[in-house]
Amino acid sequence: MHLYVIIIKLLMHRTAELIGRFFGQAGGVARGSDIQMRNGCWRDEQMEIAICDDCLSDIQELKKLIRKCTKNSDHVRFFEFHSGKDLMDGFRKFSVFFLDIYMEGEMEGVELVEQIRKRDSDALIAFYTAHQYPVSRIVRAKPFAYLVKDSVSADFMADLRMTLEEARKKE
Questions:
Q1: Which of 114, 66, 60 is CA-nearest to residue 87?
Q2: Do 110 and 138 form a contact (C-beta atoms < 8 A)?
Q3: In angstroms, how far is CA 72 from the centroid of its own chain?
Q4: Which of 20, 34, 74, 110 is the most exposed place for a label (fewest CB within 10 A)?
Q5: CA geometry: angle at 135 spanning 134 and 137, to 5°?
Q6: What angle do CA 49, 43, 45 make, to 5 degrees?
């Protein structure tokens, strides 16, 4: 039994060493904090954020606030969508979705949540909106956060940080 444990440890070390060399890790050994397995592929940790809003200046403002909240903005990648249709046409899983509730086009934010949940039932979703919306519809959408535009306060930033931390946990 002891020999099996030694062989397994040697194989694990050798595998980590080969992966580390492939990805250019110093010393040839890959550590769990440096790379991670995601969808069957080894890659650097990166938070991928989808922002769906029909107002470009609101997208830019949210990106600025997110960069302010993250320690290393190099590990954040943004994907911008200007309508629910655009998001669904280019759909894939993201670390977190930030959605406006009222957008021009065929699909409002609450309807978009329903479409997202059909494809990714565990999606982390936060509304980023300037509008008050009926609570009954919001509750059914089950967003992680409800961030009101133009009211950037300590509470807003705390909710944004909490959303981003939850997205990192899910990675």
A1: 114
A2: yes
A3: 14
A4: 74
A5: 75
A6: 45
The one-letter amino acid at 43: R
Instruction: Spell out the per-residue pLDDT of the chain, length 171, in tens.
Output: 444 333 433 334 443 443 344 444 333 333 333 333 333 333 346 899 999 999 999 999 999 999 998 877 778 999 999 999 999 999 999 999 999 998 887 788 889 999 999 999 999 999 998 877 667 778 778 899 999 998 888 999 999 999 999 998 877
Tabulate helix, strand, coil % of the chain (nearest 5). 50, 20, 35
- For residues 117 and 141, the answer to whether their CB atoms sit within 8 Å is no
**Amino acid at the residue 15:** T
| CA dist 3 → 7, 10, 14, 15, 136 (Å) | 6, 11, 17, 18, 62
pTM greater than 0.85 (yes/no): no
Contacts 24+ apart (CB under 8 A), 21-28: none
